[in-house]
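pinned: reference chain
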Amino acid sequence: MKLYCVRHGETTYNLARRIQGQLDSELSPLGRKQCVAVTEALAGVPLDAVISSPLRRARESAQGIADALQLQIELEPRLMEINAGIFQGHCWHQLDEQFPEAAASWRSQDPDFRIPEGESRRDLMTRAAEAFRAIRQLPYQNVLVVAHGGSLTAAFKALLEIPARHNPFELNNGSISLVDWQRDFKLLSLNQTSHLHGLDSGGGDL
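pinned: its structure tokens
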């Protein structure tokens, strides 16, 4: 099985450096252009299925490709972004002021620190890996997976057995990463953005 893993297009929250977590936010005008570029980049791939996080930004990003291929989007809740609890809806620069202890614990990279009213990085790794393993059992050969920077990198780390405290991956909005999963999980390419042709916006991890 090959998995074409796409991080959703830029959102209005990404643009404002506001933490989304599991809040719904809409794609920005640039984010919509990024999704068109992703659709064009994958036009020649014989995709069997489109599987998406149920959050709006991922579903909207997946819709164009699903429509082009006349496929229905299959929703996988375990692909959702981390539940960022009390951080959700706040801008990054506000965290030290409003939640100094929690912000310091989060920045320490402790994988077991659970954001108040939310999840820990390890929680996210566990459920994101479960989502990928469930997808691996489906009767498909080429699958588009549309999700989030946090959930995709968490799955990659878990399935490559990278220690939870290490964070070697970063995914830009609209990027494509390719996984080949026959016997072993292999990450063939990471964070490809050449198809964006200057539409690359980076983006925060939540």
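why pinned: The chain has seven helices and six strands. The chain has a mean pLDDT of 95.
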